[in-house]
Structure formats: C-alpha cells, structure tokens
Amino acid sequence: MTAKRRPSRRFSFVVAIGVFLAADVAAQSEVTKADPDDPALVERGNAIYAQHCAACHGANLEGQPNWQKPLPNGHWPAPPHDRTGHTWHHPDKVLFDVTKYGIQAMVPDRESDMAPFKDVLSDGDIWAVISFIESTWPTEIRERQRRMNRNAR
Predict the structure, then answer these.
(1) In degrees rounded to 5, what are phi and psi of residue 110?
(2) What is the CA radius of gyration of the chain?
(3) What pLDDT is attached to residue 101?
(4) Which among 134, 86, 75, 146 has a CA at the least distance from the CA of 110?
(5) Number of C-alpha atoms within 13 angstroms, CB side, residue 46?
(6) SS3 state of residue 59
(7) Which pairs with CB-CB distance under 8 Å and at least 24 residues apart come from 57-64?
(8) Is the model more confident about 115 or about 138?
C-alpha cells in the first residue's frame, strides 16, 4: 500500500506565485485605449461591433436614416460611424464614455435608444470596437482625430 504524498509547501508556494503572475499579466494585457493600427484588436472590435452595434449603426457603419433629426418619440437615431458621421469629431475618451454610460455622458438632455453597454461589454471590448471603427476612417480623418486625442489629455 502506498501512502499519499502531500504537495510540499514550496510547490504550493510556486503554484500560488504562478497563478498570481498569470492574473497580473492578464490584467495588464487588457486594452486601455483605442489602437486602429493593431490588426488583432481591430478584428476583435469588428466581431463585437457585428454582434452588438451593427443592428442599429449599420453593418457598414452607415447609421440610421435621418440620424440628425429626432424621431417622433424624441429619441435620436443611431448615427453613422463612418467618415460621413460625427463620431470622429470626438476624442476617444468621449466615444468610450458614450458607449459605456450612454449618450447622457456627453449630452445630458439627449434621448437615445442606445442603452449603456457598461453591463454588456468589458472596457477592453469597448476599446476594441472604437479601434475597429477608427480603422475604417480615411487617413486625414484619423490624423485629425489623433490630434484631438492629444489635445484632450
């Protein structure tokens, strides 16, 4: 009959450190800003956009018709996120806050059918979507928006 061996304290300590370091690396690797030049992040954002955003903002980021006029119920239609829209007129922090907390984060008295995504998407997922959207903009618009981001800090 063989006696069961208990793991040594040293082994348990090494495993605990490994788990701690893995969690720390995962936390550090979570996205904390938009990067439209990161292909993996853009692809992640594309998939999230298709699942959570395209139904209203359009598969091609075209938005809803007459997006600049309120609907009869007073809510504003989903704007386009392509170059024809207004998205690129705002720094990334505003885009993040509007996505996470709703349009009231930017315009307190504006009503929209877009619910806040704070309980649906992680911060990293929101940054990925913003990265995807920005990756579709022409160079001159991307550069203008980058300058806006630098000035917003």
Answers:
(1) -95, 130
(2) 21
(3) 92
(4) 75
(5) 10
(6) coil
(7) 57/81, 61/85, 61/133, 61/136
(8) 138
Domains of the chain with bracketed CATH:
38-152 (1.10.760.10)
User: What per-residue confidence (pLDDT) applies to 78?
Assistant: 92
Mean pLDDT of the chain: 84
Indicate whether 97 pLDDT > 70.
yes
Q: What is the pTM of this model?
A: 0.78
User: Residue 94 burial (CB < 10 Å; 0-12/13-18/19+)?
Assistant: middle
Nearest to 31 by CA among 125, 118, 96: 125
Compute φ and ψ for 18, nearest 5 degrees. Answer: -60, -45
Backbone phi and psi for residue 76, each to the nearest 5 degrees, phi listed first? -95, 140
pLDDT above 70 for 66: yes
Instruction: Please state, as a whole number, how many other Cβ atoms lie within 10 Å of the Cβ of residue 39.
Output: 11
